[in-house]
User: What shape does this take?
Amino acid sequence: MPFTVATWNINSVRLRMPIVERLLKEHAPDVLCLQETKVPDELFPENAFRKAGYEHILFHGQKGYHGVATVARRPIELVEKRRFCEIEDSRHLSVRVQAGGKSVLVHNFYVPAGGEEPDPEINRKFRHKLDFVHEMNGVPASQDESSASILVGDLNIAPQEHDVWSHKQLLNVVSHTPVETENFEAMRSSGGWVDLMRLNVPAEQKLYTWWSYRAKDWEASNRGRRLDHVWSSANLVPDFAGYEILQAARGWEKPSDHVPVIARFALD
Assistant: This one.
Protein backbone atom coordinates (compact mmCIF):
# COMPACT_ATOMS: atom_id res chain seq x y z
CA MET A 1 0.00 0.00 0.00
CA PRO A 2 1.32 3.48 -0.82
CA PHE A 3 1.96 6.15 1.79
CA THR A 4 -0.64 8.89 1.28
CA VAL A 5 -0.75 12.52 2.36
CA ALA A 6 -3.87 14.65 1.93
CA THR A 7 -4.22 18.42 2.18
CA TRP A 8 -7.51 20.32 2.52
CA ASN A 9 -8.55 23.84 3.45
CA ILE A 10 -11.66 22.82 5.35
CA ASN A 11 -12.97 26.32 6.19
CA SER A 12 -13.94 25.42 9.80
CA VAL A 13 -13.24 21.89 10.94
CA ARG A 14 -16.06 21.79 13.47
CA LEU A 15 -18.65 23.02 10.97
CA ARG A 16 -17.53 20.54 8.31
CA MET A 17 -16.59 17.54 10.42
CA PRO A 18 -19.16 15.34 8.61
CA ILE A 19 -17.39 15.76 5.26
CA VAL A 20 -13.99 15.32 6.91
CA GLU A 21 -15.26 12.01 8.28
CA ARG A 22 -16.46 11.11 4.79
CA LEU A 23 -13.00 11.78 3.37
CA LEU A 24 -11.34 9.67 6.06
CA LYS A 25 -13.78 6.80 5.56
CA GLU A 26 -13.68 6.77 1.75
CA HIS A 27 -9.99 7.54 1.16
CA ALA A 28 -8.18 6.87 4.48
CA PRO A 29 -5.03 8.95 3.90
CA ASP A 30 -2.15 8.11 6.22
CA VAL A 31 -1.70 11.80 7.00
CA LEU A 32 -4.27 14.57 6.63
CA CYS A 33 -3.20 18.22 6.76
CA LEU A 34 -6.03 20.69 7.31
CA GLN A 35 -5.99 24.46 6.93
CA GLU A 36 -8.32 27.21 8.09
CA THR A 37 -9.54 25.06 10.97
CA LYS A 38 -10.90 28.16 12.75
CA VAL A 39 -10.82 26.64 16.24
CA PRO A 40 -8.73 27.24 19.37
CA ASP A 41 -6.64 24.27 20.43
CA GLU A 42 -8.76 23.48 23.48
CA LEU A 43 -11.88 23.02 21.31
CA PHE A 44 -10.35 20.96 18.51
CA PRO A 45 -12.60 17.91 17.81
CA GLU A 46 -10.03 15.28 18.77
CA ASN A 47 -12.58 12.62 19.70
CA ALA A 48 -14.15 12.65 16.24
CA PHE A 49 -10.78 11.99 14.64
CA ARG A 50 -9.94 9.23 17.10
CA LYS A 51 -13.25 7.52 16.35
CA ALA A 52 -12.30 7.63 12.67
CA GLY A 53 -9.02 5.85 13.41
CA TYR A 54 -6.75 8.88 13.57
CA GLU A 55 -5.12 8.65 16.99
CA HIS A 56 -2.22 10.98 16.28
CA ILE A 57 -3.31 14.60 16.30
CA LEU A 58 -1.42 17.90 16.36
CA PHE A 59 -2.82 21.37 15.84
CA HIS A 60 -1.96 25.05 15.86
CA GLY A 61 -5.16 27.02 16.15
CA GLN A 62 -6.87 30.17 17.33
CA LYS A 63 -10.43 31.36 17.79
CA GLY A 64 -12.40 32.12 14.64
CA TYR A 65 -9.60 32.47 12.10
CA HIS A 66 -6.77 30.63 10.33
CA GLY A 67 -5.39 27.52 12.05
CA VAL A 68 -3.77 24.31 10.82
CA ALA A 69 -3.94 20.71 12.01
CA THR A 70 -2.22 17.47 11.06
CA VAL A 71 -3.76 14.11 11.94
CA ALA A 72 -2.43 10.66 11.16
CA ARG A 73 -3.03 6.93 11.40
CA ARG A 74 0.62 6.40 12.34
CA PRO A 75 2.73 8.24 14.96
CA ILE A 76 3.75 11.82 14.21
CA GLU A 77 6.19 13.95 16.15
CA LEU A 78 5.82 17.71 16.55
CA VAL A 79 8.75 19.59 15.04
CA GLU A 80 7.67 23.23 14.98
CA LYS A 81 4.82 25.73 15.05
CA ARG A 82 6.61 28.56 13.30
CA ARG A 83 5.59 32.20 13.60
CA PHE A 84 5.84 34.25 10.42
CA CYS A 85 6.08 38.03 10.07
CA GLU A 86 6.15 38.38 13.86
CA ILE A 87 2.40 37.70 13.93
CA GLU A 88 0.74 35.02 16.04
CA ASP A 89 -1.82 33.77 13.55
CA SER A 90 -1.49 29.97 13.43
CA ARG A 91 -0.43 29.38 9.84
CA HIS A 92 2.22 26.66 10.09
CA LEU A 93 2.77 23.26 11.65
CA SER A 94 5.52 20.76 10.89
CA VAL A 95 5.66 17.14 12.00
CA ARG A 96 7.89 14.15 11.42
CA VAL A 97 6.55 10.78 10.31
CA GLN A 98 8.25 7.50 9.41
CA ALA A 99 7.53 6.09 5.95
CA GLY A 100 9.44 3.60 3.83
CA GLY A 101 12.47 3.69 6.07
CA LYS A 102 12.69 7.46 5.80
CA SER A 103 12.06 10.16 8.37
CA VAL A 104 9.72 12.51 6.50
CA LEU A 105 9.28 16.11 7.60
CA VAL A 106 5.77 17.29 6.67
CA HIS A 107 5.09 21.03 6.59
CA ASN A 108 1.45 22.18 6.72
CA PHE A 109 0.95 25.80 5.58
CA TYR A 110 -1.87 28.30 5.33
CA VAL A 111 -0.53 31.32 3.46
CA PRO A 112 -2.43 34.63 3.89
CA ALA A 113 -5.03 35.27 1.20
CA GLY A 114 -3.91 38.87 0.71
CA GLY A 115 -7.15 40.82 0.55
CA GLU A 116 -8.66 42.30 -2.59
CA GLU A 117 -6.25 45.01 -3.76
CA PRO A 118 -2.88 43.80 -5.16
CA ASP A 119 -0.94 46.83 -3.95
CA PRO A 120 1.23 46.43 -0.84
CA GLU A 121 1.39 50.21 -0.37
CA ILE A 122 -2.33 50.53 0.27
CA ASN A 123 -3.29 46.99 1.32
CA ARG A 124 -1.56 45.72 4.46
CA LYS A 125 -3.01 42.22 3.89
CA PHE A 126 -1.25 42.01 0.54
CA ARG A 127 1.98 43.28 2.12
CA HIS A 128 1.62 40.56 4.76
CA LYS A 129 1.20 37.91 2.06
CA LEU A 130 4.30 39.00 0.16
CA ASP A 131 6.34 39.13 3.36
CA PHE A 132 5.08 35.70 4.40
CA VAL A 133 6.11 34.11 1.10
CA HIS A 134 9.49 35.80 1.39
CA GLU A 135 9.98 34.28 4.85
CA MET A 136 9.15 30.85 3.42
CA ASN A 137 12.61 31.03 1.86
CA GLY A 138 13.71 29.93 5.31
CA VAL A 139 11.93 26.59 4.88
CA PRO A 140 14.12 24.50 2.56
CA ALA A 141 13.37 20.99 1.32
CA SER A 142 15.79 19.26 3.67
CA GLN A 143 16.89 15.78 2.65
CA ASP A 144 19.61 13.17 3.03
CA GLU A 145 19.95 9.42 2.68
CA SER A 146 17.50 8.72 5.51
CA SER A 147 15.22 11.77 5.47
CA ALA A 148 12.98 13.75 3.13
CA SER A 149 10.52 16.64 3.18
CA ILE A 150 6.95 17.29 2.03
CA LEU A 151 5.23 20.68 2.02
CA VAL A 152 1.47 20.93 1.54
CA GLY A 153 -1.29 23.39 2.17
CA ASP A 154 -3.43 26.23 0.98
CA LEU A 155 -0.68 28.46 -0.36
CA ASN A 156 -3.21 30.91 -1.84
CA ILE A 157 -1.24 31.45 -5.05
CA ALA A 158 -1.95 29.93 -8.45
CA PRO A 159 1.52 30.20 -10.00
CA GLN A 160 1.14 28.98 -13.57
CA GLU A 161 -0.90 30.21 -16.52
CA HIS A 162 -3.22 27.21 -16.50
CA ASP A 163 -3.63 27.14 -12.72
CA VAL A 164 -6.48 29.62 -13.23
CA TRP A 165 -9.52 29.67 -15.46
CA SER A 166 -8.34 32.81 -17.31
CA HIS A 167 -4.73 33.94 -17.13
CA LYS A 168 -5.44 37.27 -18.84
CA GLN A 169 -8.44 38.17 -16.71
CA LEU A 170 -6.74 37.26 -13.43
CA LEU A 171 -3.36 38.92 -13.93
CA ASN A 172 -4.44 41.78 -11.67
CA VAL A 173 -6.40 39.60 -9.24
CA VAL A 174 -4.83 38.61 -5.93
CA SER A 175 -3.53 35.01 -6.09
CA HIS A 176 -2.30 35.28 -9.70
CA THR A 177 -0.53 38.64 -9.97
CA PRO A 178 3.02 38.57 -11.34
CA VAL A 179 4.56 39.81 -8.10
CA GLU A 180 2.98 36.87 -6.27
CA THR A 181 3.63 34.16 -8.81
CA GLU A 182 7.22 35.17 -9.56
CA ASN A 183 8.24 35.43 -5.90
CA PHE A 184 6.40 32.20 -5.13
CA GLU A 185 8.12 30.19 -7.83
CA ALA A 186 11.51 31.71 -6.97
CA MET A 187 11.00 30.70 -3.34
CA ARG A 188 9.97 27.17 -4.28
CA SER A 189 12.89 26.70 -6.64
CA SER A 190 15.55 28.17 -4.35
CA GLY A 191 14.31 26.00 -1.50
CA GLY A 192 14.76 22.83 -3.55
CA TRP A 193 11.04 22.04 -3.60
CA VAL A 194 9.47 20.05 -6.45
CA ASP A 195 5.91 20.92 -7.48
CA LEU A 196 4.56 17.38 -7.60
CA MET A 197 1.15 18.31 -8.99
CA ARG A 198 2.77 19.65 -12.17
CA LEU A 199 5.52 17.03 -12.35
CA ASN A 200 3.92 14.78 -14.97
CA VAL A 201 1.10 17.06 -16.10
CA PRO A 202 1.34 19.13 -19.31
CA ALA A 203 1.71 22.86 -18.66
CA GLU A 204 -1.37 23.58 -20.77
CA GLN A 205 -3.63 21.28 -18.72
CA LYS A 206 -5.94 23.15 -16.36
CA LEU A 207 -5.60 22.24 -12.67
CA TYR A 208 -7.95 23.63 -10.03
CA THR A 209 -8.45 22.97 -6.32
CA TRP A 210 -10.72 25.92 -5.45
CA TRP A 211 -14.03 27.20 -6.81
CA SER A 212 -15.60 30.36 -5.37
CA TYR A 213 -18.75 30.31 -3.27
CA ARG A 214 -19.86 33.30 -5.35
CA ALA A 215 -20.53 31.19 -8.42
CA LYS A 216 -24.18 30.17 -8.77
CA ASP A 217 -23.13 26.94 -10.43
CA TRP A 218 -19.44 26.33 -9.71
CA GLU A 219 -19.32 23.16 -11.79
CA ALA A 220 -20.88 24.63 -14.90
CA SER A 221 -18.83 27.83 -14.86
CA ASN A 222 -15.66 25.97 -13.75
CA ARG A 223 -13.86 29.19 -12.87
CA GLY A 224 -11.33 27.57 -10.61
CA ARG A 225 -7.81 28.17 -9.35
CA ARG A 226 -5.04 25.88 -8.10
CA LEU A 227 -4.42 27.35 -4.65
CA ASP A 228 -3.57 24.10 -2.86
CA HIS A 229 -0.19 22.50 -3.40
CA VAL A 230 1.92 19.41 -2.77
CA TRP A 231 5.69 19.80 -2.89
CA SER A 232 8.53 17.48 -1.93
CA SER A 233 12.28 17.30 -1.68
CA ALA A 234 13.95 15.91 -4.79
CA ASN A 235 14.74 12.55 -3.20
CA LEU A 236 11.03 11.72 -2.95
CA VAL A 237 10.36 12.20 -6.66
CA PRO A 238 11.29 8.59 -7.54
CA ASP A 239 8.76 7.42 -4.94
CA PHE A 240 5.97 9.75 -6.06
CA ALA A 241 3.12 7.61 -7.36
CA GLY A 242 0.60 10.26 -8.40
CA TYR A 243 -2.18 12.27 -6.84
CA GLU A 244 -5.88 12.93 -6.98
CA ILE A 245 -7.84 16.17 -6.80
CA LEU A 246 -11.18 15.23 -5.26
CA GLN A 247 -13.26 17.68 -7.28
CA ALA A 248 -16.48 15.89 -6.31
CA ALA A 249 -15.99 17.10 -2.72
CA ARG A 250 -16.87 20.63 -3.86
CA GLY A 251 -20.41 19.30 -4.28
CA TRP A 252 -20.66 17.54 -0.91
CA GLU A 253 -23.11 18.82 1.69
CA LYS A 254 -22.00 22.13 3.24
CA PRO A 255 -18.72 22.05 1.28
CA SER A 256 -15.54 23.99 1.62
CA ASP A 257 -14.67 26.10 -1.41
CA HIS A 258 -11.43 24.07 -1.58
CA VAL A 259 -11.24 20.34 -2.30
CA PRO A 260 -8.83 17.73 -0.94
CA VAL A 261 -5.69 16.75 -2.78
CA ILE A 262 -4.25 13.30 -1.99
CA ALA A 263 -0.67 12.47 -2.95
CA ARG A 264 0.65 8.92 -3.09
CA PHE A 265 4.21 7.72 -2.47
CA ALA A 266 5.65 4.24 -2.94
CA LEU A 267 6.65 4.09 0.72
CA ASP A 268 5.17 1.75 3.32
